């Protein structure tokens, strides 16, 4: 469940995306222009031979008399706290025939408890402005809040009330069942999910892992509130829970506070835990039609789980198989596969490993299938290179050092280690990784790469047709607005949340402009001994690619993977592995490196960005892969949906409607590529953000030494799309035979940009309308009606244009009423001012959200890159905070009336 779009954490609906990141990245390639057709999953951040010590303070922990464990890990990155309540139960403990019971109960935990009803819970979450979410896996159910540090007491009280007094009424379950069944329909509409679900049923047949945690519509139809109450009483007890608290807190005070809140809750006897004892796997070949732009071959095997003695060895093997110096990746530069990767999905008591390779739509996959099998057979028979094992071991050891760079990520790593793996702390993995030898890895490879134990699947693209234009829809059906009444918060929440305080300014980063025009932004953060760099060359292929050369920007970007003028591809990657760094170059570039190796890493990044090799042979391979991928992508429903949205809100022949053609791509030359690089890659269009354990002076000195000699030639190119006129109502359908549920986008162009002061009012109004569980759209389309599982409204900004969209997924029969309800809510925002309670909640959410952007180094860098891309000042956050704090309901109403046009919203539907 996803109660807040800000949540970057996992949730049940994207559980498989968390478990299979490579596979889902490959599948999601269909929703964009396949900008890196030769992509393979980059390795996770690399590491030294011994674990680096984070600068976080020592954790404080205790076990209460009722058996509940509490662990507090201070992190001074920002005035933010994350609480993560881990219940040691998941779908494996569900009653036979009801695989979604744990998932259903996770949903009901947001439906209210004694002393805190569902409206109060939603209002508190909105006012805290943080991330609040939950996820269910086979072995655990986790509930987490990320919020301003001063709201720790509120988050703890919420968890205590839910642990001991959940309402679980028949009426609430009836409403929530409709929403959860929409979630099931959405996931069943994904061929990738269907494959993973089928795979799990084969690898873990006749065990509690046979089904994933999602559940099925038939089982939910047979589930009642009494069954959920039994599951709750059996498992949701303090002696079956571990609370992790991370962030800017006084550990002793936080522990004393948590002890006072949770100690009165009684322990309960727990049922026997399920056992997972899967039998032998019979090799199978599966076929799945998909709506993806490329085909996929997946060879899957069972692997050790997170509690197994061989878990560390399995992780190292997975890293080796994913290495860009490995045999799987070699298939890409050799022109044998469009994409490759390896996913290791460890569950508590077993795991899954999947080797992947992609082929063009319409191509016979048999040759690639045999090549992939042969590659795995050679690895099984002859083992893996020992230096790749060393690199993987260093990588895993250093992962611990990066955890402190995100407060919520730190809570997640501790929860994973303690609640799922049964360890004392994440550091307990260090000795296990350090002891893994090449012999251990090869022993495990011989077991898990055995073709007699593998399940092979071929996911084949099929065209679902072209968009069908239609007339704009008429008037909306009647949809009564819900009663407008303030929500009275519990007494313990009123003090912190009922009164808005003037925003505290966020300190400015250090900002420099080099003589060549490069913009450097430095934000020191001494929470770990690591440094992260993120860079961007402002580009727009729609404006910068010469006529007839559509696709040249993507090819150029991909060629950065093929080495520099001083290092070939393999030696360049080895140089990164030697210092445990992760790097990427191109129009967007990045570097993650240990602080003591920052200079070495930066020199490698600069060499790649400023002196790419662009080898002739690699160009031919990348061009072929691009053309082959493009042929399938142009027919894929996700691409056609995106293009239909662009066409609906843009004038004919708008530059954004340019698209590449496979035949023309094959006519592009290496000379074209070099010319595009020389014209589009310029320091005066480049921004670099550096965060982490570094001083501004050292960062500036290092960037001057590596990027200072870079100079632009020729006139500055036009990068920004021109302003566009107002769009008008239309309807388009994108057939998708693979989907069980319609995906709907309502869209229109807007006549202002992010530099217009009204954009603050629109943002505040949109927070009340469509951003979060307490929003009007969520309330009217999900909570009150069950039309949809998720709905969101979104404002998109560019330097010279903007757009407004509402997106939701629904069964075909519910699309019309959901659309009409959404349009009604937009019109009501124009006709009436927000109520005082709504206005206050929206303000609190946005004001707190601005401070939460400082809770991870990634989000800090992303914020500054976003501002740079829009040409906004770096103190825009402080400007926004002041605008939100002082804004009136009439300001919001006027902005919505001036800029939004409900009658002009186009409707684009992708589905069956």
What does this structure look like?
With 912 residues, the chain is of the alpha+beta class. The protein folds into four domains: 59-262, Cytochrome Bc1 Complex, Chain A, domain 1 (2-Layer Sandwich), CATH 3.30.830.10; 284-461, Metalloenzyme, LuxS/M16 peptidase-like (Cytochrome Bc1 Complex, Chain A, domain 1, 2-Layer Sandwich); 510-707, 2-Layer Sandwich (Cytochrome Bc1 Complex, Chain A, domain 1); 723-911, 2-Layer Sandwich (Cytochrome Bc1 Complex, Chain A, domain 1), CATH 3.30.830. It is 42% helix and 17% strand. The protein is built from 34 helices and 25 strands. The protein has a six-stranded mixed beta sheet with strand order 1-2-8-3-7-6, sandwiched between helices. Strands 14-21-25-22-24-23 form a six-stranded mixed beta sheet, with helices on both faces. It is globular and about 70 Å long. The model is unreliable at 1-19, 27-52 and 466-485 (pLDDT under 50).
Tell me, what's the shape?
Answer: globular
The name of the CATH architecture of the largest domain is 2-Layer Sandwich
Q: What share of residues is helical?
A: 40-55%
What is the strand tally? Answer: 25
Proportion of beta-strand residues: 15-25%
Average pLDDT figure: 89
**In total, how many domains does the architecture comprise?**
4
Q: Would you give the CATH topology of the largest domain?
A: Cytochrome Bc1 Complex, Chain A, domain 1
Helical segment count: 34
N- to C-terminal distance: 24 Å
SS-based class: alpha+beta
Uncertain runs are 1-19, 27-52, 466-485
Full CATH superfamily name of the largest domain: Metalloenzyme, LuxS/M16 peptidase-like
Rg for CA atoms: 27 Å
The top-level CATH class of the largest domain is Alpha Beta
Largest sheet: 6 strands, mixed
Family: Belongs to the peptidase M16 family.
InterPro entries: Metalloenz_LuxS/M16, MPP/UQCRC_Complex, Pept_M16_N, Peptidase_M16_C
Protein name: Insulinase family protein
Keywords: Hydrolase, Metalloprotease, Protease, Signal
């Amino acid at each position: 469940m996803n109660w807040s779009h800000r949540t970057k954490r996992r949730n049940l609906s994207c559980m498989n995306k968390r478990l299979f990141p490579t596979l889902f990245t490959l599948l999601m390639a269909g929703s964009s222009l396949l900008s890196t057709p030769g992509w393979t999953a980059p390795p996770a951040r690399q590491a030294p031979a011994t674990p680096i010590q984070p600068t976080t303070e020592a954790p404080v922990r205790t076990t209460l008399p009722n058996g509940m464990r509490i662990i507090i890990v201070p992190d001074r990155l920002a005035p933010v706290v994350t609480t993560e309540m881990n219940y040691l139960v998941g779908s494996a403990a569900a009653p036979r025939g009801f695989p979604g019971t744990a998932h259903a109960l996770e949903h009901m935990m947001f439906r209210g408890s004694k002393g805190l009803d569902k409206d109060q819970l939603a209002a508190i979450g909105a006012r805290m402005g943080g991330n609040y979410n939950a996820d269910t896996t086979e072995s655990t159910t986790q509930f987490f809040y990320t919020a301003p540090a001063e709201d720790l007491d509120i988050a703890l009280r919420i968890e205590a009330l839910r642990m001991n007094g959940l309402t679980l009424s028949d009426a609430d379950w009836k409403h929530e069942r409709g929403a959860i069944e929409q979630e099931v329909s959405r996931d069943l509409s994904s061929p990738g999910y269907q494959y993973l679900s089928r795979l799990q049923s084969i690898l873990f047949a006749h065990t509690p892992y046979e089904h994933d945690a999602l559940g099925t519509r038939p089982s939910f139809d047979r589930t009642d509130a009494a069954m959920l109450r039994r599951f709750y009483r059996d498992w949701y007890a303090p002696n079956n829970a571990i609370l992790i608290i991370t962030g800017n807190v006084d550990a002793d005070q936080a522990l004393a506070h948590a002890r006072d809140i949770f100690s009165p809750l009684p322990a309960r006897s727990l049922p026997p835990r399920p056992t997972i004892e899967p039998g032998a796997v019979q090799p199978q070949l599966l076929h799945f039609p998909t709506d993806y732009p490329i085909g996929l071959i997946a060879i899957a095997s069972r692997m050790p789980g997170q509690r197994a003695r061989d878990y560390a060895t399995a992780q190292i093997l997975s890293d080796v198989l994913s290495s860009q110096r490995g045999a799987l990746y070699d298939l890409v530069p050799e022109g044998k596969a469009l994409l490759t990767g390896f996913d290791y999905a460890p569950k508590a008591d077993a795991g899954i490993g999947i080797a992947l390779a992609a082929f063009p739509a319409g191509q016979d996959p048999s040759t690639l299938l045999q090549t992939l099998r042969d590659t795995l057979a050679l690895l099984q028979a002859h083992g893996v290179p020992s230096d790749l094992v060393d690199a993987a071991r260093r990588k895993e050891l250093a992962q611990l050092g990066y955890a402190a760079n995100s407060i919520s990520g730190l809570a997640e790593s501790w929860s994973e280690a303690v609640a799922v793996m049964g360890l004392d702390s994440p550091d307990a993995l260090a000795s296990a990784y350090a002891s893994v030898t090449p012999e251990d890895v090869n022993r495990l490879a011989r077991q898990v790469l055995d073709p007699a134990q593998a399940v092979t699947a071929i996911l084949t693209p099929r065209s679902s047709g072209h968009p069908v234009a239609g007339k704009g829809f008429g008037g909306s059906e009647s949809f009564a607005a819900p009663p407008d009444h303030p929500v009275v918060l519990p007494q313990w929440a009123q003090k912190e949340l009922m009164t808005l305080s003037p925003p505290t300014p966020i300190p400015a980063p250090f900002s420099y402009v080099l003589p060549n025009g490069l913009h450097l932004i430095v934000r020191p953060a001494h929470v770990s001994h690591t440094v992260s760099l993120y860079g961007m060359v402002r580009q727009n292929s729609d404006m910068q690619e010469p006529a007839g050369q559509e696709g040249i920007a993507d090819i150029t970007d991909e060629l950065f993977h093929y080495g520099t003028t001083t290092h070939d591809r393999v030696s360049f990657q080895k140089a990164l592995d030697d210092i445990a760094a992760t790097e990427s170059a191109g129009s967007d570039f990045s570097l993650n490196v240990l602080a003591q190796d920052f200079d070495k890493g930066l020199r490698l990044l600069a060499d790649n960005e400023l002196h790419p090799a662009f080898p002739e042979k690699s160009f031919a391979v990348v061009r072929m892969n691009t053309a082959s991928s493009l042929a399938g992508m142009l027919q894929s429903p996700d691409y056609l949906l995106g293009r239909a949205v662009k066409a609906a809100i843009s004038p004919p022949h708008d530059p954004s409607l340019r698209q590449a053609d496979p035949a023309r791509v094959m006519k592009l030359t290496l000379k074209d590529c070099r010319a595009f690089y020389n014209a589009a890659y310029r320091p005066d269009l480049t921004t670099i953000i550096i965060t982490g354990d570094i001083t501004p002076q050292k960062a500036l000195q290092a960037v001057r030494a590596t990027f200072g000699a870079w100079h632009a030639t020729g006139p500055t190119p036009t990068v920004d799309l021109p302003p566009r006129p107002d769009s008008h109502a239309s309807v388009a359908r994108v057939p998708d035979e693979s989907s069980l549920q319609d995906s709907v986008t309502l869209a229109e162009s807007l006549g202002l940009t992010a530099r217009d002061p009204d954009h603050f009012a629109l943002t505040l109004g949109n927070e009340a309308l469509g951003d979060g569980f307490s929003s009007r759209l969520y309330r009217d389309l999900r909570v009150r009606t069950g039309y949809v599982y998720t709905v969101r409204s979104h404002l998109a900004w560019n330097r010279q244009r903007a757009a407004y969209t509402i997106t939701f997924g629904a069964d075909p029969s519910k699309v019309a009423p959901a659309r009409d309800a959404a349009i009604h809510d937009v019109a009501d925002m124009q006709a009436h001012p927000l109520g005082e309670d709504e206005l206050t909640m929206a303000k609190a959410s946005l004001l707190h959200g601005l401070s939460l952007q400082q809770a991870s180094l990634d989000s800090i860098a992303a914020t500054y890159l976003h501002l740079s891309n829009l040409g906004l000042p770096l103190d825009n956050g402080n400007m926004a905070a002041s605008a939100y704090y002082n804004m009136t309901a009439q300001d919001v109403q006027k902005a919505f009336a001036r800029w939004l046009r409900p009658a002009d919203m186009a409707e684009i539907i992708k589905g069956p």
